[in-house]
């Protein structure tokens, strides 16, 4: 599937980013692995010659610019950006600290904007022109969990970012879609087996699903020709308490 195509995956050092990166590498993509920790990126790469670990802070404009300059210098083009990096900090609107709010917004929203900005600039300039961006949203882009004000606000904002990139990118053959995920089994969802707060004030254990299904979905989105696009795709654990919340 990859046919030598190139990709950038942010948050590639763990969780969904690692799963997606390895799936793309397995499909023949050359993948720039972006994340804060060089050791974690090396673990994701697992010695694959098509993997290019690039330690990156997505909230830092200079660090993001350096990431995409590395891709341009190494490969000369970019076919796919998977905007996956994100953090989740719990807290209600009255209790969440400004520092935690800012860290969440800087990573989940500003980081996606900075990466998309650099990706679109590269995609516009390359020949053949164009490429695809897949933004990692969340079911929190549709319905919040209790005490998730920062995370939920950023994921709602990601939906607007996705729509705007889709519209602005049309003239340059840049497609943009969003994948909203509920309860994929990663380090972030381990606590769900012990029970997490529900909207009715109770605590309930929630089911999860194998994260490889998310990677398969990204591969499908990435494998489409640029004249077709999955605008929004939601993948959840079948029995999670999402549909019917409240």
TrEMBL record:
InterPro entries found in the cross-reference section: NAD(P)-bd_dom_sf, Sc_DH/Rdtase_CS, SDR_fam
An annotated Gene Ontology molecular function: oxidoreductase activity
Assigned keywords, A-Z: Oxidoreductase
A Pfam family that the UniProt record links to this protein: adh_short
Xref: PANTHER family: 5-KETO-D-GLUCONATE 5-REDUCTASE (PTHR43669), BLR5618 PROTEIN (PTHR43669:SF12)
Family recorded in the similarity comment: Belongs to the short-chain dehydrogenases/reductases (SDR) family.
Protein's name according to its UniProt entry: 3-oxoacyl-ACP reductase
Protein source organism: Amycolatopsis azurea DSM 43854
Taxonomy of the source species: Bacteria, Bacillati, Actinomycetota, Actinomycetes, Pseudonocardiales
């Amino acid at each position: 599937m990859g046919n030598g195509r190139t990709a950038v995956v942010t948050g590639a050092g763990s969780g969904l980013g690692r799963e997606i990166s390895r799936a793309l590498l397995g499909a023949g993509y050359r993948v720039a692995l972006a994340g804060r920790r060089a050791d974690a990126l090396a673990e994701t790469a697992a010695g694959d010659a098509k993997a290019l670990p690039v330690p990156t802070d997505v909230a830092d404009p200079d660090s993001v610019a350096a990431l995409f300059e590395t891709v341009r210098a190494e490969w000369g083009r970019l076919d796919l950006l998977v905007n996956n990096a994100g953090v989740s900090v719990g807290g209600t609107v009255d209790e969440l600290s400004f520092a935690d709010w800012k860290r969440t917004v800087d990573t989940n929203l500003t980081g996606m904007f900075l990466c998309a900005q650099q990706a679109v600039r590269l995609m516009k300039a390359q020949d053949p022109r164009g490429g695809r961006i897949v933004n990692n949203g969340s079911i929190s882009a549709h319905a919040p969990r209790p005490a998730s004000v920062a995370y939920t606000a950023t994921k709602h904002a990601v939906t607007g970012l996705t729509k705007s990139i889709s519209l602005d990118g049309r003239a340059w053959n840049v497609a943009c879609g969003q994948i909203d995920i509920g309860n994929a089994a990663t380090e972030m969802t381990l606590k769900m087996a012990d029970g997490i707060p529900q909207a009715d004030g109770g605590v309930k254990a929630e089911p999860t699903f194998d994260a490889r299904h998310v990677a398969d979905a990204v591969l499908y989105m990435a494998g489409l020709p640029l004249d077709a696009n999955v605008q929004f795709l939601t993948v959840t654990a079948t029995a999670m308490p999402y549909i019917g919340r409240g």
